[in-house]
Sequence to fold (128 residues):
Amino acid sequence: QVQLVESGGGLVQAGGSLRLSCAASGRTFSSYAMGWFRQAPGKEREFVAAIIWSGGRTYVADSVKGRFTISRDNAKNTVYLQMNSLKPEDTAVYYCAFQSRGFYTYNDCVLPGRYEYWGQGTQVTVSS
Fold:
């Protein structure tokens, strides 16, 4: 089992910044990826970004490219999502996710069904 605990959400004005954190604990794996997804009311869960723990390769959705950055802290087993130039359309519940299936192409990382563990979510609200 892997436990994921997110933090850092909140209310921010358009153009502002937030940094989300997701701390992982529990069973250890030699190969895994962690991702961020978001879900707005009435919409499907949407891929935001992912990072392959070994090597640090990242994938970022086109909708947030240039504004959001995913990074990791190996010592803390924590993944971050730095969100800059926030827009009202970024408003959603943001979820952290974990997978250890061994294949981490872009297509492997953008699908929610590929992830085995999920955090509880953290609300991000961007006011106009």
